[in-house]
Amino acid sequence: MPHFNYRNNTLLAERCSLEDIATEFGTPCYVYSKAAFTEHYLSYQRALSDVKGNICYAVKANSNLAILQLLAKLGAGFDIVSKGELQRVIAAGGDPQKTLFSGVGKTPEEMAFALEKQVGCFNVESSEELLALSEVARAAGKTAAVSLRVNPDVDAKTHPYISTGLKDNKFGIDINLAVEVYQKAHDLPGIEVVGVDCHIGSQLTQLEPFLDALERILMLVDKLHDLGIELQHIDLGGGLGVTYNDEKPPAVTDYLNRVKQRLAGRNLSLFLEPGRSIAANAGVLLTQVIYLKPTAHKNFAVVDAAMNDNIRPALYQAWQKVQVVSPKSGKNRQWDIVGPVCETGDFLAKNRELSLAQGDRLALMSSGAYGFAMSSNYNSRGRAAEVLVDGDRAHLIRERESFTDLIRGEHLLKEAAD
Ligand code: LLP
User: Fold this and answer.
1) pLDDT in tens, 94-149
2) CA-proximal residue: ligand 1, atom 6 (nearest)
């Protein structure tokens, strides 16, 4: 993570000390680097500068308004999966016309809202959804641009919970049935078929599954062409992995060069929906050791961040690096880094060789994607603050949640009259 480095034995985000940020904004706190977000996005933009299409950042990875605003200013489009995400894009100054609406369960109400806001394209995942969209579009007197999300049945070779392109997964339309659904879509009122889409999983560290999926999709594009259905774009979804530990995912340029080679000579625009590869290594979760609790069997460092702040270790056995913000010399011991939540699954990291003292600040690295975005209020813990660093300035981009935030919308029962 090049924008998070030590200077004078203190970990910095760009030129801001994480000690200072912890003191000013408190912990737990998510800290993002503007330069890292920008660089990661621009690596996609540069690689696609010579082809038609767009990079549609997957909002679910990190949906803070300031992050969406930053990416919108750089020219990004967005990939959304709910009305709420579309409202965020609009609130951040993003362009709905550069937005793709994905997701397996869009409601008619969400469809109507998205049509009214003129989203660029609906990625439709079933025949039933197609019929519903046709109905909604007709009723609104509008036409919905549609791409069918197909399930190409390739193994993304990633964690089963984040693998989406296999027959067993709930996502997309079986590629073998896709021609039929395209023909149906072609004839439906209120629907304009414009593209084809797939997303085979997340945290992919090899190119082959992407390229296999592309081959299968191009075969479908050709079949449709023979039937008189001409597609304008192909959307390969997100999924490119990042380095958490020692993974060596393909570089964005290598990935996209291979895709561009394969698309050469075809009149197809290219859309992508990257989330993690833009956000993960642009942020850390900053936390503080409350107690050290060595036991006969294991040493626990109890910190003030917990599974409600970052559920990835509990949910996917995710490994994220732990760095001490101001390391002191001392004997290393093995620690489990655990939170205050009453669950055995409440850990951020296990078996880490560190020299720790009470009060130390720690940074859980690679936390910019699916960190805050998946956080909850479990154990009535307010969600963490979020800070965006730009050079030597640290901006609070989301306040830590207060008790008032926690109980907003809750009602006590009225006491009975007698
Ligand atoms: N497009 C669609 C339709 C998706 O479902 C996803 C992610 C993306 C794009 C972005 O994929 P990315 O580039 O970030 O891999 N919470 C999990 C990851 C879940 C991914 C869900 N879909 C985690 O923390 O590992």
Assistant:
1) 999 999 999 999 999 999 999 999 999 999 999 999 999 999 999 999 999 999 99
2) 238
Let me know whether 125 and 240 are in one domain: yes
Asked if residue 187 and residue 220 are part of one domain, the reply reads: yes
Cα–Cα nearest to 273, from 136, 147, 84: 147
Spacing, Cα 164 to ligand 1 middle (Å): 9
Q: pLDDT band at residue 236, thresholds of 50, 70 and 90? A: very high
Q: What is the pLDDT of residues 342-397, one digit of tens each?
A: 999 999 999 999 999 999 999 999 999 999 999 999 999 999 999 999 999 999 99
Q: Rounded to whole angstroms, how far apart are CA atoms 10 and 183? A: 61
Compute the distance from residue 273 Cα to the ligand 1 centre, in Å.
9
- Taking Cα atoms as reference points, which of 327, 361, 274, 325 lies closest to residue 4? 325
DSSP for 85-147, written as a single string: HHHHHHHTT--GGGEEE--TT--HHHHHHHHHTT-SEEEE-SHHHHHHHHHHHHHHT--EEEE
Is 53 a domain residue?
A: no
Domain-terminating residue out of 223, 254, 272? 272
Q: What is the CATH number of the domain that holds 260?
A: 3.20.20.10
Which residues partner with 144 through β-bridges? Answer: 191
Q: Which of 71, 236, 276, 370 to mutate to test the pocket of ligand 1 (most atoms within 8 A of CB)?
A: 276
> Can you state the angle between helices 108-116 and 83-91, rounded to 10 degrees?
20
For 305, the domain range is 4-32+280-407
Say yes or no: 258 and 323 in one domain.
no
342 is catalytic: yes
Residues 393, 394, 398: CA angle, nearest 5 degrees: 150
How many domains, the chain? 2
pLDDT tens digits, one per residue of 306-339: 999 999 999 999 999 999 999 999 999 999 999 9
Confidence (pLDDT) at 418: 63
Question: Is 90 exceeded by the pLDDT of residue 156?
Answer: no
Beta-strand (E) ranges in 226-370?
233-235, 269-272, 283-294, 299-303, 322-324, 333-338, 347-354, 361-364
Pocket of ligand 1 (CB under 6 A): 58, 61, 79, 102, 162, 199, 202-203, 237-240, 273-277, 312, 316, 370, 374
Whether the per-residue pLDDT at 164 is higher than 80: the answer is no
Written as six digits, the tokens of 110 are 């969400």
- Is 253 inside a domain boundary? yes
Helix (H, G, I), strand (E, B) or coil at 277: helix
